[in-house]
Amino acid sequence: MTIEELEQIAKSVHQENAKYDYEVYVCMDLACASQGASALRDALVKAAEASGKKVLIRKTGCMGPCSSGPLVRVDPDETLYARAKDKDAQAIVSSLGGTPVPKLQCDLNEHFDKQVRVVLENAGHIDPEKIDDYISRDGYKALLTALSEMTPNGVIHRITESGLRGRGGGGYPTGLKWATVSKASGEVKYVVCNGDEGDPGAFMDRSVMEGDPHRVIEGMAIAAYAVGASKGFIYVRAEYPVAVARLTTALREARRRGLLGNNICNTTFNFDIEIRLGAGAFVCGEETALIASIEGRRGMPKPRPPYPAVSGLWGKPTLINNVETYANVAPIVRNGGKWFFNMGSERSKGTKVFALTGRIANTGLIEVPLGIKLWEIIDVIGGGVPGGHKLKAIQTGGPSGGCIPADMLTLGVSYDALMAAGSIMGSGGMIVMDDTSCMVNVARFFVEFCMTESCGKCIPCRAGTAQMYTLLTRICEGTASMNDLELLVDLCGTVRETSLCGLGQTAPNPVLSTLKYFKNEYIEHIVHKRCPAGVCNMAGAGAVETTSVEVPA
Amino acid sequence: MSAFTPPPLPSDDKRWKIVNGTMRKNGFARHALIETLHTVQSSFGYLDDDAIRFVALSLRVPLSQAYGVATFYHYFSLKPPGEHTMTLCTGTACYIKGTDKLVSSAEQRLGLKAGQTTKDGKISLMTARCVGACSRAPVVICDGEVAGEVTNEQMIAQLERWAVE
User: Fold this and answer.
1) Closest CA to A396 of A387, A405, A388, A386
2) Among A222, B72, B87, B106, which one has the highest count of C-beta atoms within 10 angstroms of its own C-beta?
3) Could you tell me whether strands A231-236 and A190-195 are parallel, antiparallel, or unpaired per DSSP bridges?
4) Residue A542 — very low, low, confident or very high, per pLDDT cuts 50/70/90?
């Protein structure tokens, strides 16, 4: 495969598409599929055939605003239809060439205007099971350019120059990581993609793997060329069967086109990828645990150093990046490091994909330039909190993150700002909570998660999270004393300072951040035996009768 | 020392051939343990002692390690599933939208705890740590079909339908 051949493929796809007057894209991602997107697509195909119009019906990955699904986009007009059902297929097809169907139209302009799409540039535009669709949108061009025109060091330099930081949540400079693996001694090196999206409430990586699998493969191949690896692994959660199927298809297609395998693009570069399935263990998102799992063992972390960059998979230098990090690689190589560097905030460059969920009008997948203010995400893109409720907090970073209170909406979203606020960027889950959520209960939810997901190797995490859970349960049940709260804070410090891996070190974050901003809720539970949000069941507490008990209006 | 010969298949059940196929594809390498257990679970629905023993012997992995892996990962089940499985997602978005109430309501209706199967073997009630359909929380998976924004009434109605089948 050469660049000319790539361009030839792209050209033939465009020629094929030009035969049709209209292109109708149906989002088939999990959220839309669970609302009848496949029946809709079948109905559209049927209606299109019956109409005699030249219509191409295409299935695509996630378009973004899942709460308005099933979504349909009609090109060339770029009309977006929301909540389309199979019975609407006839109306959609009939309207082609005329005025759009009014009842299906949606006003999501504000939702999209604030977004910048880099990772999701193809989402909603290509059929994820067709490699030619990807190629027609400049796919694999970056890989072939790198192979034919750039040295491995040149590629690393470009990534470093872009300022890209690890999108799994840690925020480690990607270029630096690549340079370390590249310099590590050894003939055999590995490239690993961390697709073990264990953070409950996040689905960015699933959407990328399902909606644009070739982007991940291309990013990995470029990384392999840069660091000198010839073998890669994608570690995917078994809970994502569609992602596994799409990646399997994509790998097969890439091999068929000669974009994986031996002597790629007539060079001496050989590279292939295998898929490895996770089996439901949150700790496997930690890189040394992930390595153990790929080796077929229990996913238990090891002390670092040595870092995987020096001694990873089977003791060889191993580059581990997250799905979204790899997804950023091809556009950076294509457009240059400066292009990426110019987006984002001072120390957090580029864009970030977030899964916006919880108590918010427009739930779904968004991609925003870093540095964007929280209120822009919540009020403009998200459309605010529905049902007349009041925004209380925004949770980021999952079980390792924290809650940011509603009065900090002017905060710019970046690695450093979120860290300073007591939370973390995390992999990109953003869960909105309103006045119906009890922050103590939320903290308990996350601590319970960490307790059950603790691998049990080190005591602070294994026993500490269990004790934290007991204390939080006591608070939620109204049987705790102020001494318990003190003990909880003390324990949080111990678990954070002494745990072996990130899971334990960050497990206290949800507790500490809610204590920082919502201490009054803890006090209410302990002193007044009362849950302000009405979530916790205080039946066993012998609730203190006070006049302050709220009576529902 | 003679070359390693893998143990014979436990029975003439054709599904063992599928399991063996996964191991052969990986050259009977030890790192194929998790892959192979996945194949066993997708073929048989769960991992029993015979299966774990067979896989361990075939891959020359100590029984303790195979059992350790099988019990470490939540995805593997050591008990046969019911005829129907209802999985409630308990990820953060679903929690915020009240999954805990759905779980206790389903537990009450079936008279069991999440993770168990009814005595007649008809319905298993499971929980999942996030299936990635967070935008449609709360999410319930009925025999592999993902349903979003599920109400308690809808969930109970589904359980009733299965119960009278």
Assistant:
1) A405
2) A222
3) parallel
4) low
Q: Taking a C-beta distance cutoff of 8 angstroms, is the pair A401, A173 a contact?
A: no
Token digits of residue A77: 């007009």
Q: Which amino acid belongs to residue A247?
A: L
Report ipTM for this prediction.
0.94
Phi, psi of A49 (to 5 degrees): -60, -45
pLDDT of residue A456: 95
Does B3 score more than 90 pLDDT? no
The partner residues of A357 in beta bridges, in order of sequence, read A431
pLDDT tens-place string over residues B114-144: 999 999 999 999 999 899 999 999 999 999 9
Q: What does pLDDT average to over chain B?
A: 94
CB spacing of B146 vs A365 below 8 angstroms: no
Angle at CA A127, nearest 5°, toward A320 and A14?
A: 115
At A388 the three-state DSSP class reads coil
User: What are the helix (H) ranges across chain B?
Assistant: 15-25, 33-44, 49-59, 63-72, 92-96, 99-110, 152-164
Spatial CB neighbours of A33, under 8 Å, sequence gap ≥ 6: A70, B146
Determine the 3-state secondary structure of A281 from DSSP. coil
- pLDDT at position B2: 59
Q: Give the CA angle between residues A280, A67, A139 to the nearest 5°.
A: 70
Alpha-carbon distance values, A210 to A53, A201, A242, A261, A465 (Å):
30, 17, 7, 22, 34
Q: B-side interface with A, Cβ within 8 Å? A: 29-35, 37-38, 61, 65, 68-69, 72-76, 90-93, 95-97, 128-137, 139, 145-148
* pLDDT tens-digit series, residues A101-115: 999 998 888 899 999
- Count Cα atoms within 13 angstroms, Cβ side, for A307: 9
Gap from A300 CA to chain B (nearest CA, Å): 10
Query: Against a cut of 0.90, is the pTM above it?
Result: yes
